[in-house]
Amino acid sequence: MSKEKIAIRVDDLTVAYNYKPVLWDIDLEVPEGVLMAIVGPNGAGKSTLIKSILGIIDPIAGSVAIYGKPYEKQRKLVAYVPQKGSVDWDFPTTALDVVMMGTYGMLGWIKRPGTKEKKASLEALEKVGMLPFKNRQISQLSGGQQQRVFLARALVQDASIYFMDEPFQGVDATTEIAIINILKELRKAGKTVVVVHHDLQTVPEYFDWVTFLNVKKIATGPVRDIFNDDNLTKTYGINYKVAVNK
Amino acid sequence: MELSDYFSQVFSDYTLRTITLGTAILGAICGMLGSFAVLRKQSLLGDAISHAALPGIAIAFLITGTKDTNVLLLGALVSGLIGTFWIRGMITKTHLKSDTALGLVLSLFFGFGMLLLTYIQKQPNANQAGLDKYLFGQAATLVESDVWLMAIVTSVCLVVLLLFWKEFKILLFDADYTKTLGFNTRFIDVLITFFIVLAIVLGLQTVGVVLMSAMLLAPAAAARQWTNKLSVMIVLAAIFGAFSGVFGTAISASQNNLSTGPVIVLVAGVFVLFSFVFSPGRGILFKQLRVYQNRRDLKLQKTLQFMFDIARTHEDISHPHAIRILNNFQGYTKATLQELIEKDWVSVSGQNWSMTEKGYDAAQNLYNKN
Description:
By secondary structure, chain A is of the alpha/beta class. Helix content of chain A is 31%, strand content 26%.
């Protein structure tokens, strides 16, 4: 892991709905090639942090840099996996079609996806073990399968940085393992992966980097250094005891 | 006029042909764009926009004093667009939910429009009669130039739809994600909304303010039942819309004094009803049939499993057993036994049953398949 290269840099990011701040003055540096969890209680602003980095939500202050340049110029380096519940899965389309949407950004306006894009999408489906379901109407997929399709859509973007909003929510153990293996492969390939995560027990096992968030940033750094009861207590407000296998 | 007379005259009679073409084109464009409204869960937007168009018609008349359709519809377009942007503004700027914003704009604009209409009627101007036809529409007033206008707008809409197909589709499915890919989602959104407003305004003369939203929603809702593909859905919705227009016109022309707009809407409603019941994938009828089928299969499998558990305790799987012992089993009926025999899974002689080789294999693989 090269600690010199900073993949994501967030400065003074503040987001508010009405008057209530959701994120307050966040400074964050994520080094290249880490698999980072963002943890925090409900309403801590975890999803909001990702969405404002990606420009889906407008912050009232602050800036975001991807490899030293403004995010708007670096979009092609960034892929996003939204929460599964954020779309209507009864939409009339197939699994392959959804994955193909990952190629739309590279194509730009008007140009249609061709054989090259289709091939890349099929490969991505293969990677997440969903190839047999490529022509399945998406409403007929299980929750875990839908999550895999979303992951494949991001994989097909072939980005350097991946943002994922609760990819383990409502999926079974098999899917969870399949997903985390893919994330670890991405890290091995030098990609940076940022995941909004809820299950504190699995943080040391899955991730090597962690950010504690509760409106303000509590701490960020390597899991082995900062994933401790002290930071958990500061973030969640109650005395936390997690068996950290270290 | 009989219904058959209508179809024999529709190609030769100028008025009939104009009206039929007009309502067909209108139905097609409404079905097409209505699909977008339905999939974006903005079904009520159409209702709000059509009602919001009414004051525009009245104001256009007050300013120009003419009843020229194009001028009045331009007014409708402007006030429809204003209504739409108010709705969007209310949703983003305040924390009102979209149904509240839609309801507010709908009733406020419609109320204002009605007020202006009654004001106009009190004016000592002989020209004012007939503006209220925009409330329920009057297809009989369609002339060739109106149809041309509809045809042109529909063609432009079709070209834009084909050009930005990919962008429309991804925005409909996942707007946030579309934004992260670098697309200007606001532009795509405004484009879709603009065409929806345009389609509604075009329909005001024929179907009227009050019923216009049904033209938008009914064909799309019907089409959704028949397909799981967006492109097919839009084509189907256009076809359903066009047929509603033609049949509606045919029925109203052959039954004297039936007003065309409501008949078209009712025909579209029949399409919806038929689709809800009879579509193979999502229709109520086939869904219910599948439930029965599954229940029957399950009963059969449970009985087979029960027999299998008895049979496998014997060296010879075809060892005969009394039918009596099945009586205590809840899945068992005479009909299931009959069906098992038909499938050659079980054979019966006298009061005894015995499992066949085939039945044994079937039972063994019952829960092995995915």
